[in-house]
Amino acid sequence: MDWPQGYGRRVLAEVDSTNAEAVRVAGTLAGPEWILGLQQTAARGRRGRAWVNPAGNFAATLVMRPTETPDRVALRSFVAALALYDALERVTGTAIGLSLKWPNDVLLNGGKLAGILLESIGGPGGHLAIGIGVNLLAAPEMSQVEERAVTPVALLPETGVRVTPEAFLSALASAYATHEARFVTYGFEPIRSLWLQRAARLGETITARTARDTETGVFETVDATGQLVLKTPKGRVTVAAADIFFG
Ligand SMILES: O=C(O)CCCC[C@@H]1SC[C@@H]2NC(=O)N[C@@H]21
Protein backbone atom coordinates (compact mmCIF):
# COMPACT_ATOMS: atom_id res chain seq x y z
CA MET A 1 0.00 0.00 0.00
CA ASP A 2 1.43 3.40 -0.95
CA TRP A 3 2.13 5.83 1.86
CA PRO A 4 0.20 9.07 1.15
CA GLN A 5 2.20 12.00 -0.12
CA GLY A 6 2.67 14.89 2.29
CA TYR A 7 2.14 12.87 5.48
CA GLY A 8 4.99 12.10 7.87
CA ARG A 9 5.25 9.01 10.08
CA ARG A 10 7.09 8.14 13.27
CA VAL A 11 6.98 4.84 15.14
CA LEU A 12 7.60 4.68 18.90
CA ALA A 13 8.32 1.40 20.66
CA GLU A 14 6.73 2.74 23.85
CA VAL A 15 4.95 5.96 24.74
CA ASP A 16 2.58 7.12 27.48
CA SER A 17 -0.09 8.14 24.97
CA THR A 18 0.28 8.98 21.30
CA ASN A 19 -2.09 11.91 21.89
CA ALA A 20 0.22 13.18 24.65
CA GLU A 21 3.17 12.77 22.29
CA ALA A 22 1.23 14.78 19.70
CA VAL A 23 1.06 17.68 22.16
CA ARG A 24 4.83 17.47 22.74
CA VAL A 25 5.83 17.42 19.07
CA ALA A 26 3.10 19.46 17.35
CA GLY A 27 5.11 22.68 17.35
CA THR A 28 8.07 21.03 15.61
CA LEU A 29 6.15 19.55 12.67
CA ALA A 30 6.31 20.92 9.14
CA GLY A 31 3.18 19.03 8.03
CA PRO A 32 0.67 16.36 9.09
CA GLU A 33 2.27 13.37 10.79
CA TRP A 34 1.15 9.98 12.04
CA ILE A 35 2.57 8.85 15.40
CA LEU A 36 2.30 5.10 15.93
CA GLY A 37 2.81 3.74 19.45
CA LEU A 38 3.55 0.02 19.63
CA GLN A 39 2.95 0.14 23.36
CA GLN A 40 1.07 2.81 25.32
CA THR A 41 1.39 3.05 29.08
CA ALA A 42 -1.24 5.75 29.74
CA ALA A 43 -3.65 5.63 26.84
CA ARG A 44 -6.68 7.81 27.16
CA GLY A 45 -10.20 7.49 25.87
CA ARG A 46 -13.11 9.87 25.40
CA ARG A 47 -14.55 11.80 28.34
CA GLY A 48 -11.47 11.37 30.50
CA ARG A 49 -11.68 7.59 30.53
CA ALA A 50 -8.68 5.31 30.27
CA TRP A 51 -8.24 3.28 27.08
CA VAL A 52 -7.15 -0.30 27.68
CA ASN A 53 -4.48 -1.03 25.13
CA PRO A 54 -2.96 -4.54 25.04
CA ALA A 55 0.26 -4.90 23.00
CA GLY A 56 -0.38 -5.83 19.39
CA ASN A 57 -3.38 -3.52 19.17
CA PHE A 58 -3.25 -0.38 17.07
CA ALA A 59 -2.63 3.00 18.69
CA ALA A 60 -1.81 6.04 16.61
CA THR A 61 -2.43 9.76 16.41
CA LEU A 62 -2.55 11.95 13.37
CA VAL A 63 -1.31 15.46 14.19
CA MET A 64 -2.29 18.13 11.73
CA ARG A 65 -2.93 21.84 11.56
CA PRO A 66 -6.34 22.48 9.99
CA THR A 67 -7.23 25.99 8.95
CA GLU A 68 -11.01 25.89 9.38
CA THR A 69 -13.17 27.13 12.27
CA PRO A 70 -13.27 24.86 15.37
CA ASP A 71 -16.77 23.55 14.47
CA ARG A 72 -15.56 22.36 11.09
CA VAL A 73 -12.31 21.02 12.47
CA ALA A 74 -14.34 18.77 14.80
CA LEU A 75 -16.02 17.16 11.76
CA ARG A 76 -12.68 15.40 11.21
CA SER A 77 -13.97 12.75 13.61
CA PHE A 78 -16.33 11.61 10.82
CA VAL A 79 -13.47 11.75 8.30
CA ALA A 80 -11.39 9.55 10.61
CA ALA A 81 -14.28 7.12 11.23
CA LEU A 82 -14.78 6.65 7.49
CA ALA A 83 -11.06 6.09 7.00
CA LEU A 84 -11.07 3.48 9.77
CA TYR A 85 -14.02 1.70 8.19
CA ASP A 86 -12.31 1.63 4.79
CA ALA A 87 -8.97 0.49 6.23
CA LEU A 88 -10.68 -2.34 8.11
CA GLU A 89 -12.54 -3.36 4.96
CA ARG A 90 -9.25 -3.30 3.07
CA VAL A 91 -7.29 -5.47 5.49
CA THR A 92 -10.06 -8.01 6.06
CA GLY A 93 -11.41 -8.05 2.51
CA THR A 94 -14.99 -7.49 3.63
CA ALA A 95 -17.25 -4.84 5.17
CA ILE A 96 -19.65 -7.45 6.52
CA GLY A 97 -20.32 -6.78 10.18
CA LEU A 98 -18.70 -3.32 10.16
CA SER A 99 -20.68 -0.23 11.14
CA LEU A 100 -20.14 3.26 12.54
CA LYS A 101 -21.60 4.36 15.86
CA TRP A 102 -22.15 8.06 16.43
CA PRO A 103 -20.10 10.02 17.15
CA ASN A 104 -16.98 8.03 16.31
CA ASP A 105 -16.78 4.37 17.22
CA VAL A 106 -16.34 1.51 14.78
CA LEU A 107 -18.35 -1.61 15.52
CA LEU A 108 -17.73 -5.13 14.30
CA ASN A 109 -20.52 -7.66 14.69
CA GLY A 110 -22.15 -5.19 17.09
CA GLY A 111 -19.13 -4.92 19.43
CA LYS A 112 -16.75 -1.98 19.78
CA LEU A 113 -13.66 -2.57 17.67
CA ALA A 114 -12.19 0.93 17.52
CA GLY A 115 -12.47 4.37 19.07
CA ILE A 116 -11.37 7.87 18.13
CA LEU A 117 -10.28 10.67 20.43
CA LEU A 118 -10.10 14.15 18.92
CA GLU A 119 -8.18 16.74 20.91
CA SER A 120 -7.24 20.27 19.95
CA ILE A 121 -3.75 21.45 20.78
CA GLY A 122 -3.17 25.14 21.42
CA GLY A 123 -6.72 26.41 20.82
CA PRO A 124 -8.19 27.87 17.60
CA GLY A 125 -5.61 27.98 14.81
CA GLY A 126 -3.56 25.37 16.65
CA HIS A 127 -3.04 21.70 15.93
CA LEU A 128 -5.52 18.86 15.99
CA ALA A 129 -4.71 15.40 17.36
CA ILE A 130 -6.82 12.54 16.02
CA GLY A 131 -6.07 9.56 18.25
CA ILE A 132 -7.21 6.16 17.01
CA GLY A 133 -7.23 2.88 18.86
CA VAL A 134 -8.17 -0.44 17.21
CA ASN A 135 -8.37 -3.78 18.96
CA LEU A 136 -6.43 -5.71 16.33
CA LEU A 137 -5.36 -8.58 18.56
CA ALA A 138 -7.25 -8.51 21.82
CA ALA A 139 -10.21 -6.73 23.37
CA PRO A 140 -10.37 -5.50 26.96
CA GLU A 141 -12.52 -7.45 29.41
CA MET A 142 -16.03 -6.14 30.07
CA SER A 143 -14.84 -5.44 33.64
CA GLN A 144 -12.25 -3.00 32.22
CA VAL A 145 -14.79 -0.81 30.42
CA GLU A 146 -17.70 1.24 31.65
CA GLU A 147 -20.90 -0.38 32.76
CA ARG A 148 -23.41 -0.53 29.86
CA ALA A 149 -20.63 0.13 27.34
CA VAL A 150 -20.85 -1.73 24.05
CA THR A 151 -18.97 -5.03 24.43
CA PRO A 152 -15.40 -4.66 23.16
CA VAL A 153 -14.34 -7.00 20.36
CA ALA A 154 -11.07 -7.57 18.51
CA LEU A 155 -10.30 -8.16 14.86
CA LEU A 156 -8.33 -11.42 15.16
CA PRO A 157 -10.87 -13.39 17.21
CA GLU A 158 -13.83 -12.02 15.23
CA THR A 159 -12.43 -12.53 11.72
CA GLY A 160 -9.32 -14.69 11.94
CA VAL A 161 -7.39 -11.89 10.24
CA ARG A 162 -4.06 -10.98 11.86
CA VAL A 163 -2.73 -7.50 11.00
CA THR A 164 0.28 -5.76 12.50
CA PRO A 165 -0.07 -2.16 13.72
CA GLU A 166 2.45 -1.07 11.05
CA ALA A 167 0.45 -2.69 8.24
CA PHE A 168 -2.76 -1.25 9.59
CA LEU A 169 -1.22 2.22 9.72
CA SER A 170 -0.42 2.03 6.00
CA ALA A 171 -4.02 1.12 5.17
CA LEU A 172 -5.42 3.77 7.50
CA ALA A 173 -3.11 6.60 6.41
CA SER A 174 -3.97 5.94 2.79
CA ALA A 175 -7.74 5.82 3.47
CA TYR A 176 -7.52 8.91 5.65
CA ALA A 177 -5.73 10.92 2.96
CA THR A 178 -8.49 10.06 0.48
CA HIS A 179 -11.31 11.19 2.79
CA GLU A 180 -9.37 14.24 3.97
CA ALA A 181 -8.98 15.38 0.35
CA ARG A 182 -12.72 14.83 -0.18
CA PHE A 183 -13.54 16.87 2.94
CA VAL A 184 -11.23 19.75 2.00
CA THR A 185 -12.48 19.85 -1.60
CA TYR A 186 -16.21 19.18 -1.24
CA GLY A 187 -16.98 19.90 2.41
CA PHE A 188 -18.87 17.80 4.94
CA GLU A 189 -21.83 16.74 2.80
CA PRO A 190 -20.21 13.77 0.99
CA ILE A 191 -18.56 12.68 4.24
CA ARG A 192 -21.92 12.88 6.05
CA SER A 193 -23.60 10.88 3.31
CA LEU A 194 -20.94 8.13 3.31
CA TRP A 195 -21.01 8.03 7.10
CA LEU A 196 -24.82 7.63 7.16
CA GLN A 197 -24.60 4.73 4.69
CA ARG A 198 -22.41 2.93 7.24
CA ALA A 199 -24.26 4.04 10.39
CA ALA A 200 -25.32 1.57 13.06
CA ARG A 201 -28.99 1.67 14.16
CA LEU A 202 -30.13 4.39 11.77
CA GLY A 203 -33.96 4.46 11.91
CA GLU A 204 -33.98 2.54 15.18
CA THR A 205 -34.66 3.67 18.73
CA ILE A 206 -31.52 4.61 20.63
CA THR A 207 -30.71 6.48 23.83
CA ALA A 208 -28.34 9.45 24.04
CA ARG A 209 -27.04 10.22 27.50
CA THR A 210 -25.42 13.60 28.07
CA ALA A 211 -24.04 14.99 31.33
CA ARG A 212 -27.45 16.52 32.04
CA ASP A 213 -30.13 14.63 30.06
CA THR A 214 -31.13 11.31 28.65
CA GLU A 215 -33.00 11.35 25.35
CA THR A 216 -34.55 8.27 23.76
CA GLY A 217 -35.85 8.43 20.22
CA VAL A 218 -35.55 7.22 16.66
CA PHE A 219 -32.12 7.92 15.17
CA GLU A 220 -33.19 10.03 12.16
CA THR A 221 -29.92 11.39 10.85
CA VAL A 222 -26.73 13.33 11.50
CA ASP A 223 -27.18 16.96 10.49
CA ALA A 224 -24.88 19.27 8.54
CA THR A 225 -23.01 20.16 11.73
CA GLY A 226 -22.42 16.55 12.76
CA GLN A 227 -25.08 16.56 15.48
CA LEU A 228 -27.23 13.51 16.14
CA VAL A 229 -30.93 14.03 15.30
CA LEU A 230 -33.46 12.01 17.29
CA LYS A 231 -37.22 11.90 16.78
CA THR A 232 -38.63 11.75 20.30
CA PRO A 233 -42.21 11.87 21.67
CA LYS A 234 -41.65 15.57 22.48
CA GLY A 235 -40.36 16.37 18.98
CA ARG A 236 -37.06 16.45 17.14
CA VAL A 237 -34.00 16.72 19.37
CA THR A 238 -30.42 17.43 18.26
CA VAL A 239 -27.55 16.21 20.37
CA ALA A 240 -24.03 17.66 20.15
CA ALA A 241 -22.21 15.24 22.45
CA ALA A 242 -23.42 12.13 24.27
CA ASP A 243 -22.87 8.49 24.99
CA ILE A 244 -25.17 6.35 22.88
CA PHE A 245 -26.88 3.23 24.13
CA PHE A 246 -28.73 0.68 22.03
CA GLY A 247 -31.67 -1.43 23.04
O1 LIG B 1 -12.75 6.33 24.11
C1 LIG B 1 -12.60 6.08 22.91
O2 LIG B 1 -13.39 5.38 22.27
C2 LIG B 1 -11.43 6.68 22.16
C3 LIG B 1 -10.21 5.86 22.36
C4 LIG B 1 -9.00 6.44 21.67
C5 LIG B 1 -7.74 5.65 21.98
C6 LIG B 1 -6.58 6.11 21.16
S1 LIG B 1 -5.23 4.98 21.19
C7 LIG B 1 -4.23 6.15 20.35
C8 LIG B 1 -4.55 7.49 20.95
N1 LIG B 1 -3.74 7.72 22.13
C9 LIG B 1 -4.48 7.80 23.24
O3 LIG B 1 -4.04 7.98 24.38
N2 LIG B 1 -5.78 7.63 22.93
C10 LIG B 1 -5.97 7.45 21.51
From TrEMBL:
Gene3D superfamilies: 2.30.30.100, Bira Bifunctional Protein, Domain 2. It is an enzyme of class 6 (ligase). It holds the Pfam family BPL_LplA_LipB. InterPro entries: aa-tRNA-synth_II/BPL/LPL, Biotin_CoA_COase_ligase, BPL_C, BPL_LPL_catalytic. Keywords: Biotin, Ligase. The keyword Ligase applies. The keyword Ligase applies. It comes from the Bacteria. GO terms for cellular component: cytoplasm. Its EC number is 6.3.4.15. PROSITE patterns: BPL_LPL_CATALYTIC. Residues 6-184 form the BPL/LPL catalytic domain. One of its GO terms (molecular function) is biotin--[biotin carboxyl-carrier protein] ligase activity. It catalyses: biotin + L-lysyl-[protein] + ATP = N(6)-biotinyl-L-lysyl-[protein] + AMP + diphosphate + H(+). NCBIfam families: birA_ligase. This is biotin--[biotin carboxyl-carrier protein] ligase.
